[in-house]
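Moderator note: this is an archived Q&A kept for reference. The question asked for a predicted structure of one protein chain; the sequence and the answer are reproduced below.
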Amino acid sequence: MKKLKRRFIMITMLSLSLVMLLLLGVINALIFYQTDKKANMTLQILSDNQGKFPEVEPGRKPPREPLFSGILNEETPFQTRYFIVVLNEDHSARMVDTGHISAVSSKDALDYAGRVLDGKKHSGYMGIYKYKLVDLSNGSMIIFMDCREQLQMMFYYLLTSLAVAFGTLLLVFILVSLLSRKAINPLIENMEKQKQFITDAGHEIKTPLAIISANADVLELTGGASEWIDSIRNQTVRLDRLVKNLLTLAKMEEENPRIVFSEFDLSASVYEMASSFTAMAEAQDKSLFFNIQPGLRLNGDVNLIGQLVSTLMDNALKYSNEKGEIKLSLFQGKKGPQLELFNTTDPIEVKNLDRLFDRFYRADASRSRETGGYGIGLSIARSIVEAHQGKISVHSEDGRSICFIVKFVE
């Protein structure tokens, strides 16, 4: 419940954050584009008129050229702060005009012009000034326009939009946290009903299985042994094992599974459980190797860890190839003990490896039936690892071998 709630909140907030980030980026980019475009158009007007604004008589409309639309009016010459440096062909100063700005002296203007020439760019920003280098017949002219107010407005708008976005995300986070339970309640109820159904059905099936098994024994006593009775008994055993696995999985997936944690010798427990498969491996003519670092300890449920090792070993024996190789390793990892189980196998599809932990998924259904697999053992293994705050993964380097990796956290 808590994990699903956290995931729902995380996905919701991440989606909203990405949308808001994209929206703010587009809006601020458009504002900068429009501001920069207006500054370029103003500089173009000045460059086309030798550093001056065309005169507009009071009461008359400015020129109707598209370039002047929304830029030039009667107040434009008084509102625009700019200065001009005219240079000779050898880049020596011919004329400096700072009459339209009070924050820049002639010396400062020449310094700005020198920096523009060193940069070898015809237009751009130099601090708060937007400049444009214009080639003349006998030299060049550099026009600098003060964009302080426009840049400040853009900066203030950026800060305001970020503050509003942060406040909106905080408000949405609070609302989603409060209402997320209602949003996922139907899913939770379905999951609980599914678990309850598995538990109830498992207990109900136990009685018929016991009766069928007893009847098979009676039939064998009265009529003698037969392949049909053996088949009934074998299928009863398989079904009983499946029911137990389903009940175990339902128990492990409870919100607070009843697990007894205690510190125990992990190395000894793993070796004891794994070594019990030695005879089975020899009977199948398969090589079994152990590389277990002694003295490793773990705070967990010793019985469940034994079941984990048993499940992985059983899986390795069932699905390794003929005369295959199985290697179990246990060593100290970066954050805690790490268990690895490697086995060779027939060619497998690497892209489907992650689905091995899904319930009832079997990479080779026909072979699973032959070996008695149900496609549920690895789901139980994953639940056991997660109950111990660990992680389990699987990978294959060549498509002819497979390795399960279990990482515990101390």
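Archived answer notes: The chain has ten helices and twelve strands.
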